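Researcher: We are triaging several targets before committing to wet-lab work. For this one, the compound of interest is zinc ion. I'm pasting the protein sequence and the ligand SMILES. What I need is the predicted three-dimensional arrangement of the protein with the ligand bound, expressed as structure tokens, so it can go straight into our comparison scripts without reformatting.
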Amino acid sequence: MRWHTVNYKAEDSGSSLVDRGWWLSDLPRLMLFCRLRGHRPVVDGFGPREAGLHAARWVVCDRCGVRPSPQGSLDPEKYQVGDPYTGPWIPLTRVAAADAWMALLGLRTPPVHEDDKGKPGPWPESPRGGFGGQVVVGSRALPGFSIGFEVGNCGSEHMLDMHLRLGRLLAIYVHTEQFGTWVQRRFNPNGYDSREFRLAVVDWQFRWAIWGRCNSWLSTDPRWQQGYFSFDLMEKLFGPKRYSYEPVGDEQVGLVRLPEGDQYEVRLLLRRERLGRPRLRWRDRLSWSVQWTATPGIPYREGRSIDSWCVRVDDEAVQEGTWQTAALIALGAKMSQMRTRHGYRPRTKEDG
Ligand SMILES: [Zn+2]
């Protein structure tokens, strides 16, 4: 059993009082029924049977969701998802032999006998699972009220997920890993959509999901199953609040020199930003931003770079015609901050 926590407060730059993640992992799974009566192997997988291209089949225990190792690679044309698996297994004698070879040669994966290709192997001796979660207190970043319960799919890392959010006051998230697979096997065995029950009041909207597909507001779920009702009068009268951008003037070229000593040529484009409602134009909130593009991009961690992004500049900088300088300073500061976060230091000429 392992217990560890992570303090996210440092990362969210102090916008909350408490922001802590926790994990209780490597717990033995009880699986009483399976221990007493043995696992119940069924065929699991995805994809159409006809096309065969994007299809896969393997073996899983219908009760506890544990997969044998190897899990098997069955013919999608012969095996249907959900059917009991009555096909061949890798013989135990050959499993023992493979284990011996593994130990002898220090192999990471057991050698598979020619006759056993695609067959499932033995069930794991002591399957493990865990719990985890996060507690956030007093965050400025979390508006609204929400309560929900989620059941994962056959590919989920989190099997069951629960959350409670009380605006900025408190947010609690709890999830299980492996535990609760029985629930997924019973109620959501097919496909890669997790399912959820949720009630939320966010942004003047009342949202609900009743066994709805998670994270898919474009889904084909009927409205009773997943939908929202807006009680935002402003939106009804004047239209939804949106950002829009308009380029001002031509693209300009600048040189950004980062505190780490390297420099890049960037193209800068000044943009007028508007935040407002279509039928309430006179109340638009106006601001300025500069879109920058660099080819090649500016590295901020090993093997990663950014080639286009956006920085804000203020009214004075635009009025005085110094927005290019202001944008380059903001861009340099932002990139340097990201480098620090990733512990990245570019190789400069002095390093050779
Ligand atoms: Zn089982």
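Researcher: Any quick observations?
Model: The two ends are 48 Å apart (CA to CA).
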